[in-house]
Amino acid sequence: MLAAHLDPLAASLFSLIAIASLLLAFVMLGSRWLRHYLYAFALESWLIAALSAAIGYYGHYPELYLIAILTALFRGCFLPYLLLRIVRRLNVARELHVTLQPSTSLVIGALGVVFALTVATRISTGLGLAGTVVVLALTVMLSMKLIGFLMLAVRHEAVSQVLGLLVLENGIFLGAQILVPGMPLLIEIVILFDLLIVVACFGFLVQYLLSRVGSTSSLDLRRLVG
Amino acid sequence: MLVSALLLAIVLAPAVAIALMLVVRRPRLAEGLNLAAATIAFLAALPLPSLSMGGPRIYWSDYVILDGLGAWVILCSAIVYFLASIHAVGYMRLLDEEARLPRFYALFAGFGLTILIAPMMNSAGLYWIAIELTTLVSTFLVAFERTAESIEAAWKYIIIVSAGISLALLGTVLFYWAGTFVLGPTYDMTWAALRGAAPRMDKALLLLAFLLVLIGYGTKVGLAPMHTWLPDAHSEGPTPVSALLSGALLNTAMIGIVRYLAIVDAGAPGPGPRIVLVVLGVVSLLIAALFIVRQEGVKRLMAYSSVEHMGVMALGFGFGGPLGVAGALYHMLNHSLNKSLMFFGAGSMMRSYETKDITGIREVGRRFPVFGALWLAGAVAITGAPPFGLFASEFTVLRAGLLTSSAWAAIVMAVLLIVIFVGFLNHFRVMYFAPDDRIAAPVRPVSAWCVLPMWGALIPLLVLGLWWPESVWRYFGAIAAALR
Fold first, then answer.
1. What is the phi-psi region of residue A6: left when phi exceeds 0, alpha when psi lies from -120 to 50, beta otherwise?
2. ipTM of this complex > 0.85?
3. What is the pLDDT of residues A79-88, one digit of tens each?
4. For chain A, how many structural domains are there in total?
5. Residues of chain B contacting A202 with CB distance shorter than 8 Å
6. Which pTM was predicted?
7. Is B357 on the interface with A (CB under 8 A)?
8. Does residue A101 sit within a domain?
9. For residue A2, is it within any domain?
């Protein structure tokens, strides 16, 4: 497998990109402004595209260049553009009601990373891959998952929830590039398109929410209980 | 040759119907096209189980599989799609949404199509995509009535299920990664390939991946505590959609859990995976029992009953062995038939009395003699009373459980089923035998289109309860052997 015997330069490049993406997830967690989420998400997507290209170069997977271009186009440009349009239409610039202060969520997010690191170390030691870039890839994958769920749980604005879901997906995609660069091309492309459809669906739903419920905050969704 | 033609018919019939509906855009025509597509899919699905007996068949360069398990789920889903399409003709005309009907039927047929495609997928990745597509299509069906409640239900549905399904994607990637140590960096992620590689996969990684997949697809199945989207989505969508969500979609997601369970069993990481599935089943039964007893909405009552029956199926597959698998599969068919019947009844009453509350529906038996008798028989059946099919299948699951080391779960299941029996039928006592002068009389009769599919569900249920053909038993035996 690729990640086990990389030359040091490639390994540190991959690690750098993975850690930078994780940091961007924390930027999203620590801010209240919807625009910051968007910029952080777009930048994260560009980093993932760069990672795909780097892995394609070092691992000799030419099809990953295609994935890199598609990722940059869809995740890096088109998705943020769609979301930006939704945000503009909403006239909501930031989270109005916070369940957790940003500082508290940062601390919980950090605890999540520690937990993810423990699990990743345990798994990769079992596989004889301790000390390689695999540990980092698994850690970033799992901790972006946890951070995404944290964002879903403590944010109420519709757009932040959508972005929470996209962070979940970004984490998987990033980890998958390092762990399984040979994953069938068809599936990767379909998942990219799938994401686009998901965001389009959210766009429609946000519009409905605004016109029928009169608010895009999940705090106002409380008719159905029991 | 015959099988590939049948599979093609199942896929093409709804696909062609959707294309025509979107081009012509006439409500009556859309109705007819959807009904025709559902009929073709149903007729094509009928012979699939017997044709799949000779072992799994693979088509279209490894992407499509027809095995015993898949054929059974396709059959159950096609039956519900067929019955719900008949019901939809009567029900959707009551909504006064003539102009939007073609769009509704296009989405409805699309939902049927994605449900029927998912069990055919031979690749774990493509299966994930099919399940994701079912969510996207059905969100708009749940939101179809565009009331504040239905939009809320749709929003909760897509957020919770997408988050859950993303866990399943992570699990799928980890399964693929575990496979690369055995099969090399690039391979086709078919169920058979994963299963063949499982014995040489790392046990801890296998367990982690399975738990992620179980929670992910478990969200879609509606196993508690990930069930929170289910009562909202099932109660706020139009009734034909509720039937399809409950009777067909949940099975389609369950098959993923069963396939991954077979893979993880081959890897033998101990009894952990099965115990987790059994515990999820018990928790689902418990949550369902608590909410059924105190339920106020008539469709929410049916939705919680779905959580209950998914719990029974999870227990059946979790107990495993020929008896557990047979009971769970038999339960799948019985539940599909019976839950469609119950939703058709609940939807018709909701429209007749113009209320969603159980307390607003009174004297059903006196006002609708034939319909009332049918719905009541369905209620008796769904609580697991003899002589209907669900009694036989729940009893089989119970017997299977008592033979395993998780016998405690079987005993808890029996107790909770009795609680649900009492709680569920008490609501029907109120609706049938507790007259209340303050409640207005029903404003609408029930259309024949709505009653017809109820007969179509009840008669097979009765037959299945009284007579379990030898060949069906052999068929389940073959599936159980293939899963072991």
1. beta
2. yes
3. 899 888 888 8
4. 1
5. 158
6. 0.95
7. no
8. no
9. no
